[in-house]
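User: Can you help me understand a structure? I only have the sequence.
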Amino acid sequence: MMTDGRNLIAILRGVTPDTVSDIGHALFDCGITRIEVPLNTHRALDSIATLVDALGDRALIGAGTVITREQVRAVAEIGGRLIVSPNFDPDVVQETRRRALVSMPGVVTPSECFAALKAGADALKLFPAFHVGPDGLAALRAVLPRGCAIYPVGGVAPEHFGQWLVAGADGFGLGGALYQPGDSAAIVGRKAARVVAQWDRATKGVAV
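Assistant: Let's start by predicting it. Here is the structure, written out as tokens:
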């Protein structure tokens, strides 16, 4: 479903087209090969297109906060391959799959999880993760199909990766821990190095 590498998705909310290439390279150089720009970011499509040009042959680039079929089409037309949503909408999932893109809808209940998988989701974004917690994820894991990929997003601190992984997480989407509006590529690189080190420590001996 994903590219090779660590199961970490960088969420670049508020990034600008003139800085996104350097920031993307800083993330990639640290080993983060999945990047999304939320569509409620100013000039998001321009930033995504820039990332695709810079890293599209080596990284999985796409959009977050995708809530309509039309947005899926717009992302596909500029070469984005990852579609992440805050919610589950079968129309969005089906359009994503029709265009052979990676579908990751937002879910929080068992009903949403099963409906999203039935619609063809490649992975599930558990959002907001802090509302469910590791115990809630473990309960979901007990009933979801084996092999279903779950990425907690929202309120997951890197220092807590371990407990989420034990509960059944496959990876994480991270915003402020990696990027905040105005961060330079150097700052993002330092943040990414810390996050990757925490991931590596947490996954040592854990199958993900």
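Now, to help you interpret it: The two ends are 13 Å apart (CA to CA). The first strand starts at residue 8 and ends at 11. Let me know which part you'd like to focus on.
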